[in-house]
Amino acid sequence: MRVRTKSGDMEDVDEAKLRAMVREACQCLSEQDAGKIDADALVCKIRADMVDGMHTWEIEELSAQTAAYGATLHPAYSGLAAAIAVSALQRVTPDSFSEAMEILSAAGVMDEGFMRVVRARRKKLNAMIDMDADYFYDYFGFKTLEKAYLLRDPRTNNIVETPQYLLARVAVGIHGDDMAAVRETYAALSWHTYTHATPTLFNAGTKHAQLASCFLLPISEDSIEGIFATLGRCAAISKHAGGLGLAVGHVRGTGTPIAGTNGSSNGLVPMLRVFNETMRYVDQGGGKRKGSCAVYIEPWHADVLDVLDLKKNSGKEELRARDLFYALWIPDLFMRRVREDGDWSLFCPHTVPRLAATHGEEFEAEYLAAEKSGTTRRRVLRARELWARILDSQIETGQPYMMYKDACNAKSNHSHLGTIRCSNLCTEIVQFSSPSEVAVCNLASLSLPAFVKSYGSFSGKSFHLARFVETVGLVVRNLNKVLDVTFYPLPEAAASNGAHRPLGLGVQGLADVFAALRLPWESEGARALNRDIFEALYYGALRASCDLARRDGPYASYAGSPASRGILQCDMWGVTPSEAWDWAGLRADIRAYGLRNSLLVAPMPTASTSQILGNNEAFEPFTSNLYVRRVAAGDFPVVNRHLVADLEAAGLWDAETRNALVAEGGSIARLAGVPGHLKELYKTVWEIPQRTLLDMAADRGAFIDQSQSMNVFMAEPTHAKLTSMHFYGWERGLKTGMYYLRTRPKASAIQITVDAAAAAISLATPPQATAATATTASIAQAPAMTQYALSAVDVCVSCGS
User: Coil, strand, or helix at residue 486?
Assistant: First the structure.
């Protein structure tokens, strides 16, 4: 067998070079992890999969992929795969950051102001880069960066950036010539203490550097001109990688007369189909992601039943718009009518325009008056009939999202601006918008595992809240700067951000922290730490924003806001903060100096950035302890590294246990010999009561001044279960009742690589009968096992969820 070298020559395969490559990559791992690698078996597998005439770069890619599939044997293989891939990338990319940026500049990618800074500070920037930090990523994270984030030369399609060059680009893109801030930001990003959101990583330093994630807007006017003007706005936002939240509750329903033409309205469905096709056509960031738009409608709208069907897989194609996402903006009155089994009236907003523009008591007065008059009512049905249709849609499609209109408005620092009409694509942004103001939010998330202090053992760890608060301050300062340097695709977006200066801070890796600190999700310790982390997040964000206001003055619309009257988010929830922080001093400073930012905390999904940093998503539990993660970069096995470490310590991580874990779909609940405390610690989200997750959401909600992107996990949803869950969350005061409804499939793939007899040995109770043809004992079986035996978790290509 022969291979083609970089020079184009053909030479015989040299197995010694393969072994040297694997050994060199192992040196990038810890001594403990390197000891878990069976280098000989890996080289044999790579050699067996090679074909005659392969290029050397193809062999490097094959080697990395082969090692990655060994992650089901031990997480160290993922690190080894990353080391092989990173080494290969670094050999073909420029030797310095400045050289990489010059290549991209010559290709017309980079902003000239950014390049002036790079050229003026070339030596310092190049010296700042720590290329060894590229090896901190696992293979899954590195491939996510390589596939979508690292900039390419458009002339050759070759990757020009390394991960460290990307982070330096972000730091310079935000802070320009302020080298102290550039170094501080680069170091925090390089050490994986936090990350900016995807649009910032995509676009920082480039021409038209649109760094914001979320845009919220209503249809500007209920007319042909207003609808298509809004469509143009949505296209412009999507072109520059923004996700959309669109309020349509004030657009007239089907059959309503149109005075200008003597005709009648076709309603929301044909209009939304136009928006659907626009999102398909105008992708985000030049083809990196599909366009994404969430449509918000209130349950009193005359077309609500039709909108509930738009996502369904069955029915006439002309009545479907499946590429949009759908959300309900629900007033408390509707929830009470459902609970009381009362009637519910549907109206056309053209005849009752105040319904969309009001909330709380004012909305209820308008609604009851319209209902009493009867002249404007379009239809009357039982509230539970509409509720059943909502639940049917959620069970079939995972949507509509559930957002509680009155909670969002009553507990907002934007409440003095007017009625908030919608949230964003992922249900965590709650801001005022209007025809003249397109709400915008810039996001970043803190990597919670970076703040776990270790004293040498599992029992000797704690969460470093003080350092966490310091980093929160850095993130606030950086996002505040982003507001000033970002490119705004619309003047209405610039106007909104200039007036209100909102930020969105989130977290990722809460499940990793609980695992590291030995805190089962249902424990009081986990619930207390969850509250402590979010109290510290809110306090640190307020402290930093107040310090900025002392220097630069409060944001323009600060006067009249709840914060200006001494009312913070925890006060709106009736929650007294702990004594861990100087809340009294902070309140005094806010009275004296105000805040630089109207909103600060908005925990988002973090799917893509969690993949990059190797954390579990946001504040969610582990979905499974062993599964395949499917993203644009490919299908990759993921094993819970915390569980592997515990099972290794107990002498239980072997082929038999792995086989049983696959047979159990990633759950250890029935694995024989596993200690009870580990079964409690590593419960998957399907094994944790939904009430526990809702209680945690409510606990943290008192310190979240926007909202939180909260998925609901229910293995076998029914109307009764969903109703109980929704009402519990509503009664606890949540703003977001549900992002996606996640369910489990009725049938699982046949596990053709699982030895049923071997699996049964490791189970406390014999499993259901499964087909079996092989075991999972070596690296040779790993690719087949992950491809066929494990359920896959898809990442939404549009919003990253």
Answer: coil
pTM recorded for the entire structure:
0.92
3-state secondary structure of 755: coil
In this predicted structure, the answer to whether residue 630 has a pLDDT above a threshold of 80 is no
Residue in the block written with tokens 């705004």: 488
DSSP 51: -
- For the record, the structure tokens of 613 come out as 């940093």
- Cα separation, 413 vs 316, whole angstroms: 43
Exposed/middle/buried for 752, CB within 10 Å: 0-12, 13-18, 19+?
Answer: middle
Residue 68 · residue 60 · CB < 8 Å? no
> What is the CATH class of 195-623+684-744?
alpha beta
Give dist(CA 141, CA 608) in Å, integer: 9
| Of 422, 249, 394, 223, the residue nearest 308 (C-alpha) | 394
Let me know if 466 is exposed, middle or buried by CB neighbors in 10 A (0-12, 13-18, 19+).
exposed
Return the bridge partners of 601, or none.
505
Backbone φ and ψ for 583, nearest 5 degrees, come out as -65, -35
Strand, coil or helix: 125: helix
For the chain, the domains span 2-92, 98-191, 195-623+684-744, 641-681+749-801
Cβ–Cβ contacts within 10 Å for residue 434, how many?
18
Interval 710-725: pLDDT, tens: 999 999 999 999 999 9
Which residues are part of the catalytic machinery?
424, 426, 428
DSSP state of 132: G
What span, in angstroms and rounded, lies between the C-alpha atoms of 245 and 158?
Answer: 35
Is the pLDDT at 304 greater than 90, yes or no?
Answer: yes
Cα–Cα distance, 642 to 707 (Å, whole number)? 30
